[in-house]
Design brief:
- The chain has helices spanning about 45-60, 70-75, 95-105, 120-135, 150-160, 165-180, 195-200, 205-225, 230, 245-265, 295-310, 330-345, 360-380, 385-390, 395-410, 435-455, 455-470, 475-485, 490-500; strands spanning about 35-40, 65, 115, 145, 185, 190, 235-240, 280-285, 315.
- By secondary structure, the protein is of the alpha/beta class.
- It has a single domain, classed as Alpha-Beta Barrel (TIM Barrel), CATH 3.20.20.240.
- α8 packs parallel to α10 (about 245-265), α11 crosses α12 and α17 (about 455-470) packs antiparallel against α18.
- Mean pLDDT is about 95; it is low at about 5-15.
């Protein structure tokens, strides 16, 4: 049973790297190793996104984070009628192994850490990544990175799901189990509070909803025959960072301690890494304003500072123009420089947990733990995260919190510079990144040509093996890898899954 008792005594005097990890999961933190600077990027075609990756890597980025377009995230090919108008718009369009090859052209997949924000079709996109690595002769055990693979938060807040809950979670655990045997350096799930926070929940709710989902995934993995120490060390988390600096620093500390206590109490792991909360942070997109957009660079800098003071393992800093459109190369470089200035000029990396012991930080951390624990207990009392998703509980929590926040801004109780404070009548002109409409036409034409040139009999045979695995419960990863190597597309693989699993509509919570 998940933690329901009284809060444990706080460990203000404890050291980083020691339970309950309130002060950080590594003894030296950034004195020994900086966080990974992982800028999220993806737009238009694989070739154009590869060019952006190369520019960021040349500029000092230390990890790749791939944004996929909506058709890819929903398992549709670019030439599908439903994809019209969305190909390459909010991320890169990936249809086949040819696209994945182009996306990583000139990038050493054995040395770079790659994060892919993909959930419902996570098995397919990881299969494509592995297939390209296999072609290059890169050993699977050298591949490192993360697939988000967190379907519960899609039902709760983001909406990019395909299948009903049970088969979706089966795909999640298939991927986790396969990676345990084949790609031991790969983080098999990134349990995400980011999208729930962006949708409107509070800091304590971000902790509670995220950790409730994570406990659910742990239980399902164990039901599938895995042991806690076989998968938990490769679980990671993904949080937002908003504007209240002290609250955000305290949130990360509270999440670490609460996760440690929950895992230890329910699962009693032998590996200390199983109860360490490792997390990626992204500065908040929802706090960026279209009014006076240059102000967003300041917001991002303060949010990045809070993430680092909170002990993040990797960080993405948003570009100041993202309230207007996709970031330009110049704004993306400024976002990266924000992290580099933080690391190299501010001096905060010379201390471990610089704010640890602060009266306000410790008090706020305790308060967040207590508030998060209450929500976790409520979710547990209703049968756990999955049952609450089906009932719309988490959705309701987020809607109510979002409505309250909107009202605070509209009444002036909560100030937003440039919006309801220090506003200006005349807005400065900013030219954002514009996607060439011909890019979508060219992508669709190339895909149609590609499908006509391949061996259709081989593709059909490979897809029949995917269908068989979906039906009989065999792990789907190897059949999908085989299929994409034979040039089956993302849309074709996920069409088989739609056929076998069906689709679902989550309750809104309204």
């Amino acid at each position: 049973m998940v933690l329901v008792g009284q809060p444990r005594a706080r460990s203000v005097d404890g050291s980083a790297g020691e339970p309950p990890y309130r002060r950080g999961i590594h003894p030296g933190m950034y004195k020994d190793r900086l966080w990974t600077m992982r800028q999220y990027a993806g737009f238009s075609s694989p070739a154009k996104t590869n060019e952006r990756f190369q520019n960021l890597l040349d500029g000092g980025q230390t990890g790749i984070s791939v944004a996929f377009d909506l058709p890819t995230q929903l398992g549709f090919d670019s030439d599908d009628e439903i994809s019209s108008g969305e190909v390459g718009k909010v991320g890169v369009s990936i249809d086949s192994i040819h696209d994945m090859r182009e996306l990583f052209e000139g990038i050493d997949m054995g040395s770079i850490s790659t994060s892919m924000t993909i959930n419902a079709p996570a098995t397919t996109l990881l299969a494509l990544y592995v297939a390209v690595a296999d072609e290059r002769g890169t050993p699977r055990e050298k591949l490192s990175g993360t697939v988000q693979n967190d379907i519960l938060k899609e039902y709760i807040s983001r909406g990019l799901y395909i299948y009903p809950p049970e088969p979706s979670v089966r795909l999640t655990t298939d991927l986790m189990s396969w990676c345990k045997e084949n790609t031991p350096r790969w983080n098999t799930i990134s349990v995400s509070g980011y999208h729930m926070r962006e949708a409107g929940c509070t800091a304590s709710q971000e902790i509670s909803l995220t950790l409730s989902n994570a406990i659910f995934y742990c239980r399902k993995a164990i039901e599938m025959g895995m042991k806690i120490d076989e998968f938990a060390p490769r679980m990671s988390f993904f949080f937002a960072c908003h504007n209240d600096l002290i609250e955000e620093v305290s949130k990360f500390r509270a999440a670490r301690q609460l996760w440690y206590e929950m895992v230890e109490e329910e699962f009693s792991p032998s590996n200390r890494k199983s109860s360490q909360l490792r997390f990626h942070t992204q500065t908040s997109g929802v706090t960026l304003t279209a009014q006076q957009p240059i102000n967003n660079a300041v917001r991002v800098a303060y949010q990045a500072l809070a993430a680092v003071l909170g002990g993040t393992q990797s960080l993405h800093t948003n570009s100041f123009d993202e309230a207007l459109g996709l970031p330009t190369e110049a704004s993306a470089n400024l976002a990266l420089r924000t992290q580099q200035i933080l690391a190299e000029e501010t001096g905060i990396t010379s201390s471990v947990d610089p704010l640890g012991g602060s009266e306000i930080v410790e008090s706020k951390t305790d308060g967040l733990i207590e508030a998060a624990r209450k929500t976790i207990m409520e979710i547990e009392s209703m049968g756990g995260a999955m049952e609450c998703v089906k009932a719309g509980l988490q959705q309701k929590i987020i809607h109510e919190s979002a409505w309250e926040q909107i009202n605070r801004v509209e009444t002036g109780e909560e100030l937003v510079v440039g919006v309801n404070s220090h506003s200006e009548e005349t807005a400065p002109e900013f030219e954002g990144l514009v996607i060439n409409p011909d890019d979508e036409k060219n992508k669709v034409a190339d895909l149609i040509k590609f499908k006509k040139s391949r061996d259709e009999n081989q593709v059909e045979l490979a897809l029949s093996e995917v269908r068989k695995a979906c039906i009989d419960g065999t792990n789907v990863m190897e059949p999908i890898i085989s299929a994409v190597k034979l040039e089956a597309t993302v849309g074709e693989v996920n069409s088989i899954m739609r056929e076998v699993f069906g689709t679902w509509v989550a309750p809104s919570g309204v």
